[in-house]
Amino acid sequence: MPETLKKLVDIISFLPWIWEKTAVKLAFFLLKSNPNYLRNFTSCLEKVQKDIRECKVCFSYTDKENDICDICENRNRDNHLICVVEDYLDMVSIERLHIYKWHYHVLGWSISPINWILSKDLKFVELFSRIENWSFTEIIIATNPNIEWEATAMYIKENMPKSDVSITRLSKWLPNSGYIEYADEITLINAFKWRN
Hints:
By secondary structure, the chain is of the alpha/beta class. 41% of the residues lie in helices and 14% in strands. It folds into 2 domains: 3-50, RecR Domain 1 (Helicase, Ruva Protein, domain 3), CATH 1.10.8; 69-193, Dna Topoisomerase Vi A Subunit, Chain: A, domain 2, CATH 3.40.1360.10. The protein has helices at 3-13, 20-32, 35-47, 70-73, 88-95, 124-133, 147-158, 185-193; strands at 52-54, 61-63, 78-85, 102-106, 138-142, 166-169. α5 links the parallel β3 and β4.
């Protein structure tokens, strides 16, 4: 195999959930692709980190020229509800349902001492500031159901700046160790519908 192709296979193999056989197939696909497709693909890869930034309000992603994402800018959102998620992909999965119009807050992960992720590493200060200054009446903790989820939910409850805000979590419709990102629509809808 030519050295350049080997390097391409190695780079593709580094991606999560891509095994060597798949990496080889993808490398050969790119080798045989239309030059215009390859140029567009390369251009997108070069821009992905340069042209995307964090939203200054909820910490999801937005285009570089915007300080605030489309969701935070949308005035038709319910200003009384905020859904706290671990990462952007969880937010995308929930938004894909097209039935919930609340605000979001992306923590960046869950508290996980075993992985050296502590509360100071996440966006809790910003979350509590939003709760204090906005008119939220309910905080929905929509993190993945595992030990880290429990630690994160407990931290939010113990450090809540307002006592008149209710805190709810996804119901057991979402199985333990299940991930929001991979949940089917019915499971996810029921997990929110029967939140407590």
